[in-house]
Amino acid sequence: MISLSDITMTYGDQTVLGPVSLDIPAGGVTALVGPNGAGKSTLLTIVGRLTAPTSGRARVGGHDVATTPGRTLARVVSILRQENHFVTRLTVRELVGFGRFPHSQGRLTAADHAKIDEAIAFLDLTALAGRYLDQLSGGQRQRAYVAMVLAQDTDCILLDEPLNNLDMKHAVAMMGQLRRAADELGKTIVIVVHDINFAAAYADRIVALADGRVVHVGPPAELMTPEILERVFGTPVEVRRDGPYPLAVYYR
pLDDT for 209-218, tens place per residue? Predict the structure, then answer.
C-alpha cells in the first residue's frame, strides 16, 4: 500500500530523515513511534505530500506521491497534521464537510452528506454536529478533525498524533475507533503516537524510528523488548507481559 524508497530530508547540511526504505502493507493499523526529532512527522507528511523529500520516492496505492494529480491523490490518501486551525468560525458538520472536497469540489451531493453523517456518527459527534469548534473542548475538536479526514473516504489515512488533547477515556475511545476503521471499513491507518503502550495495544505493526532512521519494524510482541525500546528511546524500560498486551514501564 505504502512504499518508500531511499527517502531523505535535509535542511542545509543536516539530514533529519533517512535514508528510509519501507513498505507498509494495506489494511490494519501501523504506528510510527520514536523520540522527539526522530523524523516520524516528517515521514508522515512526505507520504501525504505535504512535504517534498530531498530525495527518494514515495508511492501510495500504486500512485507516485510526487507526480499524481492532487485531486486523484486526495481520493487515495488523507492526512491530519498536528497543527489544525481554522480562522473561519465553523460548526462540526461544516468542518467535516471539508473532507468531501476532493469528491464534490464544494458542491455537496446527497452521497456527500451521507458520508459526512457516517463520519460524525463514527466519532460519536452527532450531538455536537451543530456546535461551533470554539465551543468544544480540545478533545472534542480533535475528534471533529479526525471525522473530517474519515469523511474524505480514502483507503489510506495518515494521522499525526491523533491523541493530542485527549484524556485517558477519550484516548482509549479514539484508538478503538481507529481500530474499528481498519477492521470494519478496511482502511489502512498510519498514526504517529508517543505512547508506546497505545501502539502495543492497538497497532498491528510498529515502525520505530530514531535519529531519522528506521530502527525496527514488526508486530508489537516482537518490538516490545527492553533492548529494542531502550535503543529507540534512550532510557531504561521494563516490559511486563502479565496482561493482555505487553506493557512498557519507563517512568522511574
Answer: 999 999 999 9
- pLDDT at residue 107 in the model: 86
Report which residue type is found at 150. L
Closest CA to 7 of 212, 203, 167, 166: 212
The residue to which cell 492532487 is assigned: 70
* 85 band by pLDDT with thresholds 50, 70 and 90: low
Contact yes or no for 115/153 (Cβ under 8 A): yes
Cis peptide before 19 (omega within 30 of 0): yes
Q: What is the pLDDT of residue 84?
A: 67
Q: Which helix (H) or strand (E) holds 220?
A: helix 220-223
Angle between helices 110-122 and 168-185 (to 10 degrees): 130
Cell triple for residue 241?
507481559
Q: How far apart are CA 152 and CA 67, in angstroms?
A: 21
Helix (H) or strand (E) holding 6: strand 2-11
CA 39 and chain centroid, separation:
14
Residue type at position 11: Y
Return all residues near 212 (Cβ < 8 A) that are at least 6 apart.
Answer: 9, 15, 16, 17, 18, 20, 38, 39
C-alpha 99 chain-centroid distance = 16
